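Journal club prep — side note

Before the paper discussion, L.F. wants everyone to see what a predicted structure for a comparable chain looks like in token form. Sequence:
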Amino acid sequence: MKTHRLIPIIVVLFILGVATMTTIRNSPVALDSGTTQAVEAQTDQVESDGFSSTPGADTKTEVDTDLYLDADEVEKRAAEEQSGTSDTTASPSRVPVSFKNVAIPLPGGIDHAVAGVATRNSGQGVIRLRGIPPGSTLINAFLVWGEIDQAAVANYPVVFGPDCANGAAFFGQNFGNSPQPCWNGAGTFFPYITNVTPQILPGINGDYRVSRLHSALTDNRCPWGDGGCAGPGNKLPLSEGASLIVVYSNPCIPRGAQLYIHLGPGTFSGAHTATHFTLLNPIKPNFPNLKHSRIGADGQVGGFNCGLRSIPQISDERTWIENPATGGSIQIKGDVAGLNRDSDWNGYDGEPLNKLWDSHTDVFANSNFLAAGPPGNQGLSYRVRYLSQGDCISWVVHILGVR
């Protein structure tokens, strides 16, 4: 038992020992040039309790748009679905949309909101959705969640609905997998999504409970040891968290507003870039706001004292949004030059416990930043770039709003 208790502490102390070297090797000044640096291979890498003793190799993903919406697109699809003339031969989206009950015409343009809850060692929790303006019309709502397990679950059954009411059963669909974020090498990270629009309250804002997520433990204990108390171990399945994504229309939103949803997942513990293509519906110029949301697993501020003691060297993740056509780059989160110096991956959806899940949204520029480029290459993609110093992260969903 004494040896088991010391393992997380030894790993974190080792991380602190290499943090200075890894910070220099992954200098954010060099990364701001629009290039990434290869991380030297390590033969003595140790992974435990959500951390890697050395940053992982640079990784990259490329993802087409899983769902594009604007007011015209919503009204077109709603009219087709409600009249029974939808093209059933079209390739289905990984995002399970339905416009069957959307009242048209819409009152204005569209936007989105996200909120989440951490579910490690519980398998359930309450999502507090706020910020939808009065007079909004609900278009679609999606529940996404993630876990570490040995295999994906087909038609994953969960219960979702307003808190303190009887929830309804929904069946989630797996949309891929990525390496597990440094908890149990026998597992893989699996994300799921389902449409929960029927359970959203008339005012949209509210408290929503999700339950029956798969979790080996359901006693709500913290994921790490706490002083002299040993940690819970990492028996599979390990539930990470769940987020609610709401798409709505409001008269205050410009009718030409755009929304792009890109599904992951992607796991990293060093530098990572995710390029998202917008070829069929290029990003429009001359809108005042770019709004970006990031949902994912395994954020925390440290591993000591039940994860409540912050260790800056290993919670120093940074996030950039970039225009591949121009090389333009804006650091929106993290230390040094970030517009918001908090990390995207501090486990804020589980504050103060049980951490390990994040849903973050930022408005950071006008649309000309991503719409710019040489003729023929304007607004056709954007890039999300992350830098971790050894904290293992799995991003699940990226959402770009242009409004």
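L.F.'s comment for the group: The chain has a mean pLDDT of 89. Keep this in mind when we get to the figures.
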